[in-house]
Amino acid sequence: MEHTLKRIHVQAYLCSAAMPPQEQMQRLEQFLREKYREETSLVWKETPELTSGFRIEVGTAVYHWNLEELYDWSFEAHKKQLEETLLQAARKEGAVLPLLKNALEEWKPRQEFEEIGVVLSVGDEIAEVSGRSGTLFGDILELEAGSGGWALELKSDRIGCVLFGDDREIAVGSIVKRTGRAAGIPVGEAFLGRIVDALGSPIDGKGEIRAEGFMPVETPAPGIIDRQPVNTPMETGLLAIDAMFPIGRGQRELIIGDRQTGKTAIALDTILNQKGKNVVCIYVAIGQKASSVAGLVETLREHGAMEYCVVLSASASDPDPLQYIAPYAGCAMGEYFMNKGRDVLIVYDDLSKHAIAYRAISLLLERSPGREAYPGDVFYLHSRLLERSAHLSEARGGGSMTALPIVETQEGDVSAYIPTNIISITDGQIFLESDLFFAGQRPAVNVGLSVSRVGGDAQTKAMKKAAGTIRLELAQYRELDETTKRQLDYGQGLMRLLRQRQHSPQSQHEQVIALTAALHHVMQNIPVSQIEEFRRELVKEMEQREPALCRELDREGILTDERQEAILQRAKEFLARWLSDRNAEGGV
Q1: pLDDT, tens digit, for every residue of 493-522?
Q2: Which candidate in 36, 443, 444, 552 could, as Cys together with 436 as Cys, close a disulfide (CB 3.0–4.6 Å)?
Q3: How many Å apart are CA 287 and CA 267, to the nearest integer?
Q4: Which of 130, 129, 119, 125 is nearest to 171 (CA)?
Q5: Mean of the pLDDT values across residues 170-194?
Q6: pLDDT in tens, 202-252
Q7: Which pTM was predicted?
Q8: Are strands 55-61 and 148-154 parallel, antiparallel or unpaired?
Q9: CA nearest 163: which of 145, 181, 184, 186?
């Protein structure tokens, strides 16, 4: 049985206020035949609003006519071209008037060619658009109502487009134009200290932000040749993490646990600890309550941290497409600083809600659901985001971007789909346990389930030496029974030492002094309830009596045997005085 392909008939309309001469119609028909190499017909359509010039609307006619391309020789099109040329000239560096004069001298009107589609259906922040095959995945589409859309589903006869604005303003049959641009976000130093939405627009009421560039939200991750080993600490200021699960610059460390176990608190304290360390911090809020984000921003301001931070918020009230694009936009902003040789810390809070937003979009785009109703490419959703964190080679400027993704579990179930995916992508995880949190152990870090795959490479020599056996000691403490009271008391003292108030990051010398004293049993006979008081006063004693030693630990990050012996000697002398004072007061 023979099959014949049906030829597509190209139908074009010449729109103008007056009927053009026959010779001009023939020349235009010849132009269309050479352009499309198909059977073509050109029909004049009276358009009174085109007082000067004309335009050609081109579509295909098989079962019905679809507008797909537009050639515009009208006055309005040339005026728009001139406006865009002058605007681009004004954005360039240098004297404005000479640039504008040069742009005017070199400008020549050209025919305006645009790929055109039509909205076939719209609803739930999704529009289906008829369009030509030239549209690429990730292209930005411009709708007639002025709203922007993102092409995320390419089918043989239509395009699935997610919308960034209100879909109630878009009508079926309205025109859609392909811009040829990928989704991007404005970037620059002026964004530091500001709060923006997922598209980079300010939402803090402080006016416009002057951008220095434009970064695509989706870029390939740096290759192996462009990276260097992760070997520089990104200190959190939290003793439980810096001692046992150190984070390096360029690492991806997952913070995972049930809701209300202190996940955001760890990320926030890590941001506060970067003050004065020339680290740019980006906090990406995905699906959070606006009041929660406002409270976090207020905390950053109170501690003087907003000056080196950017807060990018796609709150729970924002459309799913904005929640979907938010982490990629934040990552692009971080890459801008990383490519300039800066160190960046980025927090994704949280990727559970990001995956839920993507699931909603995918189901509306009619993608088949899989495990837990997520589409099959949900692993790629987060891997292509987190792989962009890196410590760049010196040839690339030596910048770094450290990622702290946050994932929420349900009753500690780390075997769920999204947690297992992200655990396999990241370089370790900090697991927060509800029982520890409610028992007052904060941060509620589970020592057995938490891990850093970078390990000691991300610690200073002083911290590595001071914290050498703490994980072994805590593991023994967890395994021993109640009959070994001394070891239990010792382990309880270590656990209490790791308990830390929120918004109270500790410097390097504070952490080294506390660990050295604790792991050499200086605090063995101190009641658990008084461990924190003893640690605080011991550090104050050392800062007063050994200021040079404290400065050297912070500056050099090396704990020599002589420095360790000096710390122990001072700690034992202070312990004797401290116990004597408490005995005199009847407190011990």
Answers
A1: 888 888 988 888 999 999 999 999 999 988
A2: 444
A3: 17
A4: 119
A5: 86
A6: 999 899 999 898 899 999 999 999 999 998 999 999 999 999 999 999 999
A7: 0.76
A8: unpaired
A9: 145
Burial of 47 (0-12, 13-18, 19+ CB in 10 A): middle
d(CA 82, CA 68): 25
Active site residues: 453
Joined together, the tokens standing for residue 373 give: 């109703």
pLDDT tens profile 351-399: 999 999 999 999 988 888 888 889 989 999 999 999 999 999 999 999 9
Phi-psi map region of 173: left, alpha, beta (phi>0 left; psi -120 to 50 alpha): left
Structure tokens at 379: 């692993």
Question: Tokens 């490479």 correspond to what residue?
Answer: 457
Question: Residues 348, 404: contact at Cβ < 8 Å?
Answer: yes
Among candidate residues 170, 178, 137, 181, the one with its CA nearest the CA of residue 155: 137
Look at residues 427, 65, 108 and name the one whose alpha carbon lies nearest to residue 252: 427
**Which amino acid, 321?**
P
Residue 361: strand, helix, or coil: helix
Tokens read off for 68: 């797909």
261: its two tokens: 């176990």
Q: Quote the radius of gyration of the chain (alpha carbons, Å).
A: 31
